[in-house]
Amino acid sequence: MVAKMNPFKPSAGHVPPVLIGRDMVLADFEEGLDNGSGAPGRLMRVTGARGIGKTVILAEFKRMAEQRGWQVISETASAGMARRLLDRLRPKQRSFSFSFEPSVSVMNVGGSLGGIHYEKTQLPLTLREAMGLRLDELEKHGGGLLVTIDEAQAAERSDMVAIATASQHLTSEDRNIAFVFAGLPSMSSKWLNDDVMTFLRRAQPERLGDVPLTAVSQALADTFDSTGIPLVGEPLRIATHATAGYPFMIQLVGYHIWHRARRRTANMKGDAVAVTVEDAELGVADALSRLGDTVHGPELDGLSPIDKTYLLAMAQDDGPSSTSVIAERMGKDVKYAGIYRMRLLEAQVIEEKGYGKVDFAIPYLREYLREHAAYIRMTLGLPDD
Description:
The protein is α/β, with parallel strands linked by helices. 49% of the residues lie in helices and 14% in strands.
């Protein structure tokens, strides 16, 4: 019987039915939970390009922790993150005030003919103390607390300092706590060079990359087969290679090919239900259009005008680009262009391909730039070629 629900989930953070190519990072986290306080997997930073699956990994970490009786608090970095964490940790049926500063207790002394009276202020609660109080309850039942921070490159320094302070103290006290930070590669360059963030330098690094095509092929075939719509032969080859091993593209390709095949075969039976070459090709085209809207466009929006100019110069080549040729096309010297080369390498938008050569690290970005070159040049105030 053909399933009625599409098994692929190309939406941010939604855990796919088959999480492929991430066995090592999942095992590292699982060992961290099971090996107790101080285990490397309990303080982790996960980096990777947009669409590589960072948010999905955090969702899977959440599921693994909750299976062990842990509480999970998940946040996306933005202004006021530490305050939101405090609010979610707020003890019920108690009266506390909250602060990011160390706790203090002030006693006011007033004189009167009848004697001395005392007034005591409310006790401000730091993030460390709030987490400690929550752990007091969780640890009674063998549980712990996992805090995940997504898009950590966008966090404010004051929020990161508050979290760093809590992490250092609670870890030194052997509390049952774990922290995972996920973000674009710029997260590392931003926070690892900050003297206050020494705790993040000790975090276990997990850099997410592309999934091997052999694993992609097997996962696609198995997932389609489980829904009653076989994907084999040439259609499977087309689908597999179209993904380029890029996790978000795997979901997009699977989703749109399945949708095409399901719509065509709604009232069919037998061999006719299998995915055809036309289903695969049309589904891939749909996926590529969606990839541009959800990955390429937002990625370019976060880059500087000169970053974009560098990429437009690269897009003129069908394969790896010479850095000296890129500089020439930009009308700049190699040293000047090299500054932006390093920025794009750190952001994992491009990657090195041997001495003096670079290529795009994000699948199909070259094609997207070519298709939208006129618009991008217009927004940058550049003349058309």
